Amino acid sequence: MSEFRPVPLEYATRLINHGPTIMVTSRCKDGRQRNVMTAAWSTLVEFDPPRLVVVINKEAYTRTLLEESGVFAVCVPAASFIDQVYAVGSVSGRGMDKFSRFNIRTVQSTGLDIPVIEEGCVAWLECRLLPEPGPQERYDTCFGEVVSAAADQRIFRDGLWNFTDQNRELHTIHHLGGGNFVLSGEMIHARQI
User: Fold this and answer.
1) Could you tell me if residue 78 is inside a domain?
2) pLDDT value at residue 21
3) Residue 68: phi, psi to the nearest 5?
4) Count of structural domains, the chain
5) What's the pTM value of the predicted model, to 2 decimals?
6) For the domain that residue 33 is a member of, what is the CATH number?
7) 39 inside domain
8) Using CB atoms within 10 A of its CB, is residue 63 exposed (0-12), middle (13-18) or buried (19+)?
9) Are 102 and 40 in contact (CB under 8 A)?
10) pLDDT score, position 133
11) pLDDT single digits (tens) 30-76
12) Residue 193 falls within a domain, yes or no?
């Protein structure tokens, strides 16, 4: 049984506000082709409704699919999934199904019918591509509106991350280049002053 639970949209922005490496999943319009890629550059740009931006090369297969279908998902991988994260970021999906090649299981999102990764990931955000005249056509930025989100309740609950020594394999990762990553750090809490 999945540990994933829906995340209210008011907390969806917290799923990536700490800058983790992400995996972007996409599909073609009719759903027969799909792809997954790793991305290190994503950030939030709006809170209500939640919107984000992901940098995806204009020539990438994922970009082709998400522009055709108008939908994509952002999946947040856990430390235990680092080998798959690096693998899918190192090869193109043109001519192969990276999900099958790297043994990545997916479930279909409920709203936009996008493949999302729960096994190996700790959160996902289902997004509708926002057409941006000008920049999107010229640059590698893709804007998305988050329409639903879910997270693994063992590490994200009540709208907050809970990184501990006991759930280290579920910590998110941050890419440093050349196959090197770091884990999300030790949590510290601010006190009222």
Assistant:
1) yes
2) 95
3) -70, -45
4) 1
5) 0.93
6) 2.30.110.10
7) yes
8) buried
9) no
10) 63
11) 888 999 999 998 998 998 999 999 999 989 999 999 999 999 999 99
12) no
Provide the token pair at 2: 């999945």
Range of the domain at 63: 4-183
3-state class (DSSP) for residue 56: coil
Residue 155 lies in a domain: yes
Nearest of 1, 2, 7 to residue 126 by alpha carbon: 7
Give the single-character DSSP code of 92.
Answer: -
What are the beta bridge partners of residue 156? 161
Answer positive or negative: Cα dihedral of 171, 21, 144, 3: negative
How confident is the model over 127-148, as pLDDT tens digits? 999 987 655 566 788 999 999 9
- In the numeric block, the tokens 């030790």 are attached to 186
The rounded distance, in Å, linking the Cα atoms of 144 and 62 is 14
Element (H, E) at 27: strand 22-27
Q: Which two tokens stand for residue 5?
A: 């639970």
CB 145 within 8 A of CB 137: no
